[in-house]
Amino acid sequence: MTILGVYGANSPSAIREFESFLGREVDAIHGVVGGANWWDFTQSAQWAANDLWKGIDRPVLWSVPLLVWNGSPTLEQAAAGNFNGYYTDVAESLLAGRQGDNDPIYIRTGWENNLQNFPWSSVGHEDAFIGAFRQFVDSFRDVSDRFRFEWNINHTWDGADPMRAYPGDNYVDVMGMDIYWNVSQQGSNAQVAWDHMRSAPHGLEWFERQADAHGKPTAYSEWGVDSNDASFIKNMEAWFESHDVVYQSYWNSSDNGIGKLTDWHIPVASQAFRDAFGGASNNAGISGGNASNGDDNQPASPATPANPGLIAAGGGDDTYRVNAENTPIAEAANGGTDTVITWVKNYTLPDHVENLTFFGSGWSTGTGNGLDNVIIGNDAPNRLNGGGGADRLTGGGGADTFVIGKGQGSDTITDFRPHGWGGAADTLLLEGFGSNAKIWNTGNVFSIQAEDGSVTQLTLEGVNHLDGRDYAFA
After folding, report:
1. Active-site residues: which are they?
2. Residues with Cβ < 8 Å from 263, sequence gap 6 or more?
3. Minimal CA–CA distance to 121: which of 153, 95, 83, 149?
4. Hey, is 347 helix, strand or coil?
5. Considering the entire predicted model, what is its pTM?
6. 165 and 44 share one domain
7. Which of 177, 237, 300, 323 shows the smallest number of beta carbons within 10 Å?
């Protein structure tokens, strides 16, 4: 029977929310290793395997980036073995997090390689992708034979044959496809959309034929719907039951604007999912390919401690690695320059801690305190608010929102990208200034005058012009 997994933005609380919605425990958790840079790649794997999901008595279906976003690494470099040391570090961390059993550990890398959305896109680099994938697999296999590997593509309506980037049967245990019914792209007629998904040149039927020809089971590591319609979910349920599908993982997140069911914004679809997949757990383990899992024990629900242990520090420059939003930190005033690094979704700096850095690939919200903070986002869309003090804010690669409050010091944004510059555009959210506020600038120093006449200054490095799309008043 197909194993049911769920993606919940690397959040144990989101998994619990989904299980409450579903009326049973999920059979597996879709975990994602960070890929902002190689440090994030190795450290987030260690954190996720040994802290975030520690003690979770169920499989984690890992998505591990083949390349990272920063530093411009290439598939050609990966194919030459340049990044094998990083791959080995991650393999060791993921293995260390599953020392209590001998079950297979499923790894999806280079996902959706037939699109151009990721740094590991195989489009025009098929041979290099194959070489990089093989180096990744060999590096993991050198650590343990428990690892199993999913080669993954995205369902597309056209385009080149994805099999041109297939790494070979010796390097693939499971063939995977991600598929979404996105009404804005595929139309609102459920039957027409499904028929095309099924029969397109590189659609579902083609994909399962390829898997059969190579003797591989299949997986659907991401799937979702944004329509208030039950038919797509019913069709997917029937598809899983009628094919050799090892696991499927629903994308229960609004990070990509599609898919979340637990908020009931598409109630017909939410109820259809509960009807299809709720009830008794299928936790008989994962099988398929070269792997099997015979653990019939019912796992405990994942849990973030309600009151994580207090972290206290000395008087020097301290660095805290924080794994839960409510972790208390006791830092003395004038106790050095202190930094929090974290992968959690929302974090507010405690008193007497100056700096905050986000890693991982999920959307993050970071809030400063009254000190002169340095806050650095990840490459997802971030919402950063320095609070009081003269703060230095860096958004990273996503479409970020910078919250600037009236009278809250003179902040500097190091990487603000106005609309019209190309790529992800950032936004200034100006709070407390009133609707009749005025903005002017001298070079890259912008002055924001509130209705009461007070002026707050903001420096945007490399920017000397804004238009109405670049800011909003709140």
Report:
1. 112, 222
2. 254
3. 153
4. strand
5. 0.68
6. yes
7. 300
